[in-house]
User: Fold Dirigent protein from Pisum sativum.
Amino acid sequence: MAAKFSVPIKIISFSILLFITINIVNGQAQPNQSTLVFYLQDVGKGPKATVSPVIGINGKVWSYNTFGTIFVVDDPVTLSPSPFSTLIGKAQGTITVTSQDGANVNIVLSIVFNDVQYAGSTLEIQGTSRQRDNLRELGVVSGTGRFRFARGFAVFETISYDPTSSESVIRLT
Assistant:
């Protein structure tokens, strides 16, 4: 004699199978991927400086190569390398020289968007930057607004640097 299953057991069994199938399909789905390109306008000295040392080791010069120096950043973020191009936000955070020889810095940076498309959204970038390399890869660890739950990586590339004015343009992809 064949076993008879009650209706509630059939419904529960079907529900469990459906739940497992949905989770398998969702687990195989690819997350949304975006590639953004914008430019940080970095000014290291003068009345319009956008990056400035705030603390360092007593008795030592506070510079980008001096271990223990901490900088604050408030760089304009633009659509093109020109400092006069459309402003889409600010790159705000800290840079800490973390290696004895000054080769590496730890960066904690929020890209705060204020343009129409991404207004109120942020991207959070963090990691070690090998500042003597032209291309530096850091982690995108989070975001808000349109970039909620963002993760991935960002590539910083120095496009230009003027040692006299201490101005640089950094491409962020």
Notes: The first strand starts at residue 38 and ends at 43. DSSP finds one helix and nine strands in the chain.
